[in-house]
Amino acid sequence: MATDAPSTLRVQLVEQPRLQKLKEMFLSKFGTAPEFYVRAPGRVNLIGEHIDYCGYAVLPMAIEQDILIAVKPVKSQVVQLANTDSSYLDFSTNVNNVQINKTKPQWHNYFLCGLKGIQEHFGLNNPTGMNCLLDGTIPPSSGLSSSSALVCCAGLVTLKANGKTLSKVELAEICTKSERYIGTEGGGMDQSISFLAEEGTLLAKSKGLDWKDMSRLHDVQSGLGVSLADMLTVVEAVLHPEPYSTEEISKCLGISLEELRSQGLSQNTQDVSTFKLYQRAKHVYSEAARVLEFKKICNEAPADAIQLLGELMNQSHISCREMYECSCPELDRLVDICLQFGATGSRLTGAGWGGCTVSMVPTDKLNTFMKNVGKAYYQTNVQRLALENNSLFATKPGSGALVFVEA
Ligand code: GLA
User: Fold this and answer.
1) In this structure, what DSSP letter does residue 59 have?
2) Do the beta carbons of residue 162 and residue 126 sit within 8 Å?
3) Is 66 noted as a catalytic residue in this protein?
4) pTM for the complete prediction?
């Protein structure tokens, strides 16, 4: 029996206009009422960028914007998917023949990742078919994890439709793995992972550790048994700011270029000729330290907590921009504008290289902040103007994935 499974709430649809509307659309689409609804939220990362895969803690927050799916299990072994946004086309497939298109993924492929993850976990021989209608409110391509929310939502939909239970942790693990069925879509993330693992391996060798056992920068810190502040000193002492060529890295490690390519570089970095090891390692260790500092301030709540937290967010953005190089001119401009109009802290959030910023704004300044940022960033540019309504919003912490059934 799964402990800490996602909650199921019994709700009166008259009190839930969004569910009610989805039910009506479902009825007109499929001719029957949904049996249950599943919601999975998007997220914003408050601080801790590009360090989760290096083994460090991060501080994400679930947001109100989400993926909501109305579901009716059916007797046939067909999954029919429809979206309330008609620009996303209907899709149907046999549940025993799930094909995920990695090269040109469309929205339904993310659903299929969650579906396949659960099917495989339970080795379901006879999975149920279902009719599903999806309603999403997470702006796409914004770095707020709309794709992951869809995979998670589909995972929970499949779990529930097949009468199974799992804990939230198990579900998260399965959905993390099953999202890989879609392959690399962003074009930057996988390279970064391999790249940083390579940095750790270098550092390790110079400090007498067995670098072949280390794949994350956190492994190097644990291996040395020192603090994050000490790791920053190590980076200064051991690495140089000039980019490293593959020849120099293989020489440092005492291996051939071929060995470096086969043992140290991922598929995506095979053809990369230089690596900024110093900058990337500096970002990771300093960002990991900022996350711990952020948490400490939240716990201790000193009188100037808001200023201190804002300053950490600003430092995080500078490090992402200068050291990790995952910002872009538009994100930098937006951060500047947000700070100019009253944000206490502002930074890019998510993978970066485009996407979204997150700002901390005192409640009493929120209205003027939204108006002025809208004017300064969106209303000065015709292309951005069209995005303003969906893109500029205030949010508060939302809950995790849930199942709703009609009371
Ligand atoms: C993406 C990944 C996350 C994290 C962020 C960067 O969103 O999915 O796991 O690495 O980038 O912090």
Assistant:
1) -
2) no
3) no
4) 0.86
